[in-house]
Amino acid sequence: MQFASSVKVPVLGIVILMQLVLLLLGMFMEPLSILMVTLPLYIPVATALDVNLIWFCAITLLNMEIGAISPPFGLSLFVVKGVMGDSATMGDIYRGSLPFIGLDLFVMTVDVCSCLQQCFGFQVL
């Protein structure tokens, strides 16, 4: 983990990059599989960078939720299609998921602002 602490990128940049990878994977895989693959890699890096693991895991779980309802392959969208049958198209389901994605992004913004304020000492508001 010396590599993670020796990189010339700010800690926040590394955390954001890690979360973007999780969000991208969430669009194509189920959340449990992603967590089982990435957390053994991410937790030691986050610990080496002295990131608060409570906030890191909270943001990670929000990313898993956003990924599960994000097109094109959000797992929950196909579950909804199976329940709805022919009464709704996948386009309708994709459009119906957009408000939830927006709300999740809002919650993540609030969560990240709280994390920045508490963990890194930034004054956000």
In short:
77% of the residues lie in helices and 0% in strands. The chain is mostly helical and 125 residues long.
Q: Could you characterize what this model shows?
A:
It is a single chain. The chain is mainly alpha-helical. The chain is 77% helix and 0% strand. It is built from 6 helices and no strands. Helix 5 (75-84) runs antiparallel to helix 6 (90-120). The chain is elongated, with a radius of gyration of 17 Å.
Percent of residues in β-strands: under 5%
User: Kindly state the mean pLDDT as a whole number?
Assistant: 84
CA-based shape: elongated
Segments where pLDDT lies below 50 for 5+ residues? none
Number of strands: 0
Major sheet description:
none
Q: State the separation between the terminal residues, measured CA to CA.
A: 33 Å
SSE order, one letter for each helix or strand: HHHHHH
Radius of gyration: 17 Å
